[in-house]
């Protein structure tokens, strides 16, 4: 994503790296593995808790309705 | 539109999650053969006369066969009849059908820690059939707010071995 830095266009003579400007990163090179890990862990937790709730708390506690 | 591959991944996982929720419920109601409480279809009762007419005028346990009993139970402000004044005694490992209705407001019937749970609606008869697997005492709670003493509305079901079940308190058919 291009940023608009007024200082760069005024001809200060410095490069982007030297002025500390964040480098442009194409979308496909952005690899948020941390976010993926957190989302994945939450996803697994959700499935495990849902299965626990359904199969243990709801479906197998006897007595239950048979007809 | 360009979508990042991570985005594609968790859009896909979200769809898998929705499919899993639906799949688990379908699995329960087909393979595991789960049941939900029913309503006696087409059969309504008049809440104004339910205490004086029909089977609910004499709530209690009736015998259908050696392996099947039925309970006509009233849920009313703020007790279950039978069950609250003295425990409802039922045989273990025997098929029990509950028929429940209310003469006043909406109540709930729940045996905590079990799958027995229904709403009891005036004018309708809620039914459910179960087998109590072991001889022990089960509690019953009202889980629909029904008035100022709702928190005191509870009952007990005392499940005894079939050989010890006293049939002298049954209601004649």
The gist of it:
The complex is a heterodimer of chains A (67) and B (173). Chain A is mostly helical and 67 residues long.
Description:
Residues 3-14 of chain A have low confidence and may be disordered. Chain A has helices at residues 6-9, 33-58. The radius of gyration of chain A is 26 Å and the shape is rod-shaped. By secondary structure, chain A is mostly helical. Chain A has two helices and no strands. Chain A has one domain (6-58). With 173 residues, chain B is α+β, with helices and mostly antiparallel strands. Chain B folds into two domains: 1-34; 38-169, Immunoglobulin-like, CATH 2.60.40.420. Chain B is built from one helix and eleven strands. In chain B, a hairpin with a 6-residue loop joins strand 7 (107-110) and strand 8. The termini of chain B are far apart. At the A-B interface, helix 2 of A face helix 1 and strand 9 of B.
Key traits:
heterodimer, A: 67 residues, mainly alpha, B: 173 residues, alpha+beta, Immunoglobulin-like, 2 domains, 6-stranded mixed beta sheet, 3-stranded mixed beta sheet, 15% helix
User: What gyration radius of chain B follows from the Cα positions, in whole Å?
Assistant: 21 Å
Helix/strand structural class of chain A: mainly alpha
The CATH architecture of the largest domain in chain B: Sandwich
Instruction: Count every helix of chain B, treating DSSP H or I runs of 4 or more residues as helices.
Output: 1
- Note the overall shape of chain B: elongated
Main sheet makeup of chain A: none
Work out the number of β strands of chain A: 0
Principal-axes shape call of chain A: rod-shaped
């Amino acid at each position: 994503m291009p940023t608009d830095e007024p200082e760069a266009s005024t001809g200060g003579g410095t490069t982007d790296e030297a002025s500390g400007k964040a480098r442009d990163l194409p979308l496909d090179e952005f690899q948020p593995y941390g976010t993926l890990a957190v989302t994945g862990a939450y996803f697994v937790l959700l499935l495990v808790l849902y299965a626990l709730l359904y199969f243990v708390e709801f479906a197998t506690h006897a007595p239950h309705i048979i007809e | 539109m360009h979508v990042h591959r991570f985005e594609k991944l968790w859009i896909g996982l979200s769809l898998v999650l929705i499919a899993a929720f639906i799949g688990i419920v379908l699995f329960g109601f087909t393979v595991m053969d789960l049941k939900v409480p029913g309503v006696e279809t087409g059969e309504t009762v008049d809440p104004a006369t339910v205490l004086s007419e029909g089977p609910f005028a004499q709530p209690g346990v009736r015998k259908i066969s050696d392996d099947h009993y039925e309970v006509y139970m009233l849920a009313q402000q703020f007790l279950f009849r039978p069950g609250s004044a003295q425990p409802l005694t039922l045989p273990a490992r025997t098929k029990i059908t509950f028929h429940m209705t209310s003469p006043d407001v909406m109540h709930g019937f729940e045996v905590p820690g079990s799958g027995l749970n229904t709403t009891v609606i005036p004018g309708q008869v809620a039914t459910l059939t179960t087998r109590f697997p072991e001889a022990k005492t089960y509690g019953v709670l009202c889980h629909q707010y029904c008035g100022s003493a709702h928190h005191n509305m509870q009952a007990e079901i005392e499940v005894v071995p079939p050989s010890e079940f006293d049939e002298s308190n049954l209601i004649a058919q």
